[in-house]
Design goal:
Blueprint (H helix, E strand, L loop, with lengths): L2 H4 L2 E6 L2 E6 H39 L6 H20 L2 H11 L5 H8 L3 H19 L1
Antiparallel strand pairs: 1-2
Helix pairs in contact: 2-4, 3-6, 4-6, 5-6
Length: 136
């Protein structure tokens, strides 16, 4: 009995056609499909985060002032806020925007990113501390 006779073959559908391949090839194709799906989801999340971040910054810029002095202070802070948020590490920035702008809970963000909600909580807290330091 040769090596070829010992291999297990399976029938799969690949690009719309039924083909027979070894189990090893079938596993490899399935891994590739999963990787491609994960990568597409990651790209989609990152694109959504960028759009949310831009909208979040625009919304913050539109906060109505109270008085002249308050207006002046608010405008100075609003001008600095986008650049300060941009200076945050990418993960903190993404989570801050998702929490405050998108209205996602720490649990939801954690599920999307595949981390525990307490990690998201600490990350957002660190981002807020950093932003607070800039304004002091």
């Amino acid at each position: 009995m040769n090596e070829y006779d010992k291999q297990v073959f399976v029938e799969i559908v690949y690009k719309g056609e039924r083909i027979t391949v070894t189990a090893e090839v079938a596993d490899y194709l399935e891994d590739c499909r999963r990787d491609k799906k994960r990568q597409a989801e990651k790209v989609r999340r990152n694109q959504a985060a960028v759009l949310c971040e831009e909208d979040f910054i625009e919304e913050l810029m539109a906060v109505p002032p109270v008085g002249f002095e308050d207006e002046l202070i608010l405008r100075l802070e609003q001008e600095r806020l986008p650049e300060l948020i941009a200076k945050l590490p990418e993960v903190q920035r993404r989570r801050l925007v998702a929490y405050f702008y998108s209205g996602l809970t720490y649990q939801e963000i954690g599920q999307i990113e595949g981390v525990h909600h307490s990690v998201v909580l600490r990350s957002v807290g660190s981002a807020l501390k950093t932003l607070k330091k800039y304004f002091e």
